[in-house]
Amino acid sequence: MPGRSGSALPGPMMSKPDAWIARVEIDNPGVVRYHPDVERELQVAIYDLTDENSFQPDATHFGNVQTGPYDLILRVQGRQLVFDIFDRSGAAIGSLPLPLTPFRKTIKDYFTICESYYEAIRSASPAQIEAIDMGRRGLHNEGSDKLRDLLAGRIEIDHGTSRRLFTLICALHIRA
What we know:
Elements lengths: L20 E7 L8 H16 L3 E3 L1 H4 L7 E8 L2 E8 L4 E8 L1 H23 L2 H26 L3 E3 L1 H13 L5
Parallel strand pairs: 1-3
Antiparallel strand pairs: 2-6, 3-4, 4-5
């Protein structure tokens, strides 16, 4: 299995070899097809996420959580981000709705700086591109930290998993 060959994963819960996401899907019926740049970023985020991640639903919140690996569907329902979690046999473990409000400004700013970044790649100097990219990464970290805070006590994830999930959450805010 890629990314899991005998190496210890960081973080306190990583002693569980089955605490990870094997498959992730974005349920965004508002989009028929993403822009090629966005599609590429999503494919990379999904590949990276399923290659190496840590994801452990808390048994107190979800009841009798079966061991992973897990399948995850991310979707927006009303004003909530919903994590639908399944075991590998397809049995539902549970759904976790989170408020979208804490993400709104960060996502808006992230989209704005991403547009600047893609424009800069075409014509700006390497120093300008690097400065914009640093801002982009900072906003990405801010969003992933908010996600970890909102999941605390319900789903335990590491920083890398949180960053990749934040990329997918941003994709749910793209409209056709």
